[in-house]
Amino acid sequence: MDDVIEELSFEDALLELEQTVAQLESGNLSLDLSLSLFERGQRLAHHCGELLDKAQLRIEQLTEDGEIVTLSPPN
C-alpha cells in the first residue's frame, strides 16, 4: 500500500482499488483506517481515470490509414 500511485499500471491500480472497496464494504475497520482507505481509493480512482483518458487519446490519434494525428488531451 506504500506504492506511489502514479507509478502503478492501470491493472495494478484497479486491483488495489477493488481490494480497497472490498475492505471498506466489510465494515470491520476503525474510522481512521476507513478514512485512510477511502482517501487512497479516491486517488486510485483518479489515477485509473487519467490512464483511461490517455489511452482513449492514443486510440483517437490513429486514423483509418494508420497515420497518427496530433490531438490535444481532454480537459
Residue share in β-strands:
under 5%
Distance between the termini: 29 Å
Using only CA atoms, what is the Rg?
A: 17 Å
* Spans of at least 5 consecutive residues with low confidence: none
Structural class: mainly alpha
* Number of alpha- plus pi-helical segments: 2
Main β-sheet description = none
Given this structure, which CATH class is correct? Mainly Alpha
Helix proportion of residues, in percent?
55-70%
Q: Would you tell me the overall average pLDDT?
A: 88
Task: Report the order of strands and helices.
Answer: HH
Number-wise, the strands total 0
How many structural domains can be distinguished in the coordinates? 1
**CATH third-tier fold name:** Helix Hairpins
- The global form is elongated
Describe this structure in words.
This protein is mainly alpha-helical and 75 residues long. The chain has one domain: Helix Hairpins, CATH 1.10.287. The chain contains 2 helices and no strands. It has helices at 10-26, 31-61. Helix 1 packs antiparallel against helix 2 (31-61). It is elongated and about 55 Å long. Its EC number is 3.1.11.6. One of its GO terms (molecular function) is exodeoxyribonuclease VII activity. Bidirectionally degrades single-stranded DNA into large acid-insoluble oligonucleotides, which are then degraded further into small acid-soluble oligonucleotides. It is found in: Cytoplasm. It comes from Candidatus Promineifilum breve.
